[in-house]
Amino acid sequence: MAQEAGPVGAFPPPPGRVPNFAQPEDLGRTNLVVGLAVMAGLTTVMFGLRSYSKTALNTHWYTEDWTCLAAYGLWMCYISTVLVMAHYGEGYHEWEVTKEAYKEVLRVGHNSVESTFRKPFEAKHCQWLYIGSILYCPAAYLTKATLLLLEARVFAVYERVSRGVFAFIYILLFCYIPIMMLKVLVCIPVPATWDSDIKPANCLNQRKVFISDMCLGVFTDIIILLLPLAMTFSLRLPFWTKVKVVALLSAGGIATGVSIFRLYKSVLFLEPSDRTEGFVLLDITT
């Protein structure tokens, strides 16, 4: 039986390209890991300070405090799934990932070398992508609900506005539930999501489901940004105080801008030529 001359990539390289398994080209993997570590660290510090202050001052925990706690836990789990995907090759060319990197992934029985190494990569990477996509929905919803609950409390003196915000929170929940169900049942049977050998299988277009989710996210980000800006001008405050408040709230426009940019890049990513490279920017901007 012929012996392998060297490492074999998870995917065949493009014509004229030679994989460098010893030093694969870094297409953003380092930036992804460092960025996630920094964001997780800052989030943990800010959440810890907030929780400590409420506990030390013996302050009552409101609904938004509990939703913030749940959102924090889910985002940490989501970041963990992205780090696992980075461990399995996200941020490198998909054809510069070696067999040894996947020695503990799902074992499959294929005869051809190409299918043998394509299968483990897709299975393991898509498993974690599937898990992350499911975690994203409740994490995003609880984050938005926390911000909306804070706005409802700030503008509680305007009863109609406060009720409108609560109504919007429930409407948002009813919007996120079907999207999450589509992500959970994107393939029937579910294992077909990461195992293309399971036949017969009925699968939705997973990328289009993601884009629907992101469109909803952009819409709600805009609402969360514009609502306090509009209400600030109705308050009886000195002009320059209003300007300062608006300037502070406008910082939220950065998050909205990032959401729009992420949606734009996701549309371009509908037909990726190198999946492990393309996911990096999407994960960083999440």
UniProtKB/TrEMBL annotation:
Residues 49-276 form the Rhodopsin domain. GO terms for cellular component: membrane. It is found in: Membrane. The chain crosses the membrane at residues 32-49, 69-88, 128-152, 164-191, 211-233, 245-264. It is a multi-pass membrane protein. Keywords: Membrane, Transmembrane, Transmembrane helix. Residues 1-22 are annotated as: Disordered. PANTHER family: INTEGRAL MEMBRANE PROTEIN, PTH11-LIKE INTEGRAL MEMBRANE PROTEIN (AFU_ORTHOLOGUE AFUA_5G11245). Belongs to the SAT4 family. This is Rhodopsin domain-containing protein. The lineage of its organism: Eukaryota, Fungi, Dikarya, Ascomycota, Pezizomycotina.
